[in-house]
Please model this.
Amino acid sequence: MKKLVISSVAIATLLSGSLYAGNGTLRLITWKGYAPKALVKKFEKETGIKVKVTYSNNEEMIAKLRATRGGGFDLAQPSVDRISFVQKKFHIYHAIDYSKVNTDQLTKAMVDAAKRISKVDGKVYSVPYIYGTTGLIINKKMAPGANDWSDLWNPKYAGHISYRLKRPILIGAAFGMGYNPFALYGNKAAYQKLIDKVTKKLIESKKYVKTYWTSGDTQKAVVRSGDVWVESGWDAIGWQVHEKNPNIDFVAPKSGALGWIDTFAIPAKSKNIEGAYKWINFILQPKNAAYVTNKSSYMTVSKDASKYLDEKIKVNYNRSYSKEDINNIKWYAALPSGFASIEAKALDQIKAAE
Amino acid sequence: MENKKNFNVTFYLLIIPVLLWLVILIVLPHIDLLISSFQVDSDAGGKIFSFEHYMAFFKNKIYWLTFVNTAAYAIGVTILAFIVTFPIAFYLTKVISKKYASFLVLLLLIPLWVGELVTVYGWMIILGDHGVVNQFLIYIGLIDKPLPLLYTNFSMTIGLLYMSMLFMVVPIMSTLESLDDSLIEAASDLGASKWTIFRKIIIPYSMPGITSGAIIVFMLVIGDYVAPDILGGKSSLWFTEQIYNEFLATFNWGEGAAFGFLLLFISSSIIWLTLKLSGQKLERVGS
Model:
């Protein structure tokens, strides 16, 4: 049966004529804003390799690569905490050969973190690219005092609260309630208990929530419309909105912003591994990385990019993060397998509750 | 003889691409999904046959409750779509001249060209706290605080209705077009009231159109993802979202496949049951 399906998929791909890959093309699956057109053109000119970009997110990226057993793309960009359990179960990535990565141009702390979090059986599966945090986006005119995860269930802001009903809110809420969920990653039963408590909290306070936002775009839309004063959100999105409306800004929660690192990972059936390394080394050159950051506000791991950054990026950064905030960032640990379903069940319960 | 042979060759040449398409892209993936919906990871690391995924649907209240909720909304939207579109279809076929009618039908089609996602965003702009409707009501002094219109079951219903309305208009129009006006005139001459004419002549005559419209709308709504996801309220968990979550958030493809087949099976059963109860025949609907 499996053979039948595989061959049918192969025929389908042949029919649709998308099976032309090789050293001439690099099929990249990434996030919006991570591969700006200008840089794609520059890369094509320098190397002669054509880049085909597909936009996606963590869940879809993993599902697509799993369906093709690591085929269809030459380079992917999952978050670092979502690599190891997927790799253990589905074997969809190639190990990274760090001798081919120009690590001199990267921040060492970030490389070490990516190596540590994406390690499976002694092999490393990712190169860091962009990092940032999930925290709060606050309308400071309407909710001047809001500064922690616990404000997402503060009755003061009833009817003007929003968050995305996905993994980060469970983690953020746990920190806001005074727990450390990452410390329980070794103990499934204890983690289940903690998530149960968080679920109860979020169901009790559901009446205060205006809506659950579902994407970067809706995240911006609900806060810009003035309907929402306090929402969970990404730092870069908060800064993008701040540019248009100075009353709105990103705030690092007191109990800790959640730090994520998005990376490069090479799918197991990549047809252009050389090209993939070329792209990694190209886009992380200080000037190119700075271009990405200036355009999107996402922070880059490229070490010397800071020389080329716009003033506003530094201003944003310093306004939202004090030194304590930076030290207090809770970096996502690798999600153990089986934990995703605990969280998914909890999220379903919250969504279905009245 | 020669002729018949020619016909056969052309026939097979024409049917092969269709069959290939159906088998490779629709039948085979479905068989694969069906198989995986019956497979569970065993402790040894292999796959074993089991009904566990299907049992999960009936065991967890949240799953079947979501389905009941989704189906109830789909039925409700179908009835609403009929109430809203029947006068439109009647007006377009029987009241105004053909020339204007085709222009108006074109206008009805326009929202379909821009795609569901765009129309859904349009409704966000119209229904939001700072949207057109609320601002207008505040401006004329009817209310002083915006009504919570967006992100409620109301906005979701509007979105679903708007996207599926057209699929009700077209089949009803096509049956009404063949309705001979003299039937209505005759009934009128014999002293039937407007309501009686509507009940005894127009509705029975257009029943095949109404039924096929209802089937399409029901299936579209029960399988929709965008409108419930974006316009829906905090509690409007749609069954398709449940399936999406099983595939993409939990990575539990077996469960997602099982839910997909349950959706297909139960919604088909609902249609079959409704056809039986209302005495309609699928063959007549199709014509």
